[in-house]
Amino acid sequence: MNLYTKSTLNRFSIAPMLDWTDRHCRYFHRILTKQTLLYTEMVTTGAILYGKGDYLAFNSLEQPVSLQLGGSDPIALAKCANLAEQRGYAEINLNVGCPSDRVQNGMFGACLMAKADLVANCVEAMQQEVNIPVTVKTRIGIDNLDSYAFLCEFIEKVIPYTSTFIVHARKAWLSGLSPKENREVPPLDYERVYQLKRDYPQLTIAINGGIKTIEEIKQHLNYVDGVMVGREAYQNPMLLTQIDQQIFGDDTPIIDPIAAIQSLYPYIDTQLSQGGQLNHIMRHTLGIFNGRKGAKQWRRYLSENAHKPGAGIEVVEQALTFIQ
Questions:
Q1: Helix (H) or strand (E) holding 157
Q2: Where are the beta strands (DSSP E) in the chain?
């Protein structure tokens, strides 16, 4: 049974980011914000169905968590969605926004914007298999298919099967730009996403791209239903400590960053006892003291020592002594 209401689930979320939003990152972010919807890294259907690892693993304390799937085979996507629902995920999200060559070669990601009928079939197949929400993360266009009419045509073909779209307010160039450049070079067009909400008021529309402050988040929420933040949430985690109060109206006290790090100790102990490595956890915390005296020494000490064999909580405690 889905415990999270549609009205709050997508109000604020942290974007799926490859090599960043892994389970350690999500656990840390959940310490900072209880209300935010967290996303997995994009996981391909092939990895889930045929890979040797457990690509659906997450800690129940991370909830609510959305699984972002990469794929374009409706049958495989439906199988993965079913497995994810059984594991307790709060939402399934289809990636129709990633522009990397590797993703295109697998026929998923942003190139699917040109195949709206296929996207509709994929979402329908997943929706028939699960009771949790199935959503789509997309761009405003690709290459020269970047008119508002094109975006609307894409949306209208998928609407029968989902009512929630997370829209990155940049188009994607499928050739000529790297994934990093595609996050920075194409100009942002927030107004186009606002227009989408005006023209399709029945939809839940969340906006993504270049959003960095609480003030900006609040401004966007005047025009759309939700905001997704990516790199800023990762590189400046203290932003997340304000979300529950400022965006959700929660009266929970804002957590102190030192207390947040100390809250990780039991998790670190558990992970290390299971063969995990300290640096795999702590790399996600490096930006927590940005702007505070001692932050540079904190980052340096962890970077130089957390990867060493046998590194444990004492390394974190020593790094904290630099913070003033």
A1: helix 148-158
A2: 12-14, 37-39, 43-44, 65-70, 91-96, 134-139, 164-168, 204-208, 226-229
Beta bridge partners of 134: 92
Is 98 tagged catalytic?
yes
Neighbours of 50 (CB within 10 A): 9
The angle at the Cα of 125, spanning 124 to 127, to the nearest 5 degrees, equals 60
SS3 of 279-320: HHHHHHHCCCCCCCCCHHHHHHHHHHHCCCCCCCHHHHHHHH
User: Which of 25, 80, 98, 111 is the catalytic position?
Assistant: 98
Q: Report helix, strand and coil shares of the chain as percent, to nearest 5.
A: 50, 15, 40
pLDDT at residue 173, rounded to an integer? 86
How far apart are alpha carbons 181 and 237 in whole angstroms? 23
12: nearest Cα among 39, 37, 49? 37
pLDDT at residue number 3? 41
- Residue 256 sits at the vertex; the CA angle it makes with 251 and 261, to the nearest 5 degrees, is 125
Q: Characterise 209 by phi-psi region: left (phi > 0), alpha (psi -120 to 50), beta (else).
A: left
The three-class DSSP label of residue 153 is helix
Please compute the mean of the pLDDT values over residues 168-173 and round it to a whole number.
Answer: 92
The DSSP bridge partners found for residue 165 are 136, 205
Global pTM? 0.94
Sign (positive or negative) of CA dihedral 110, 41, 30, 135: positive
Distance of CA 266 to the CA centre of its chain: 25
CA distance 220 to 25: 26
Cβ count within 10 A of residue 1: 4
Q: What residue type is assigned to position 117 of the chain?
A: D
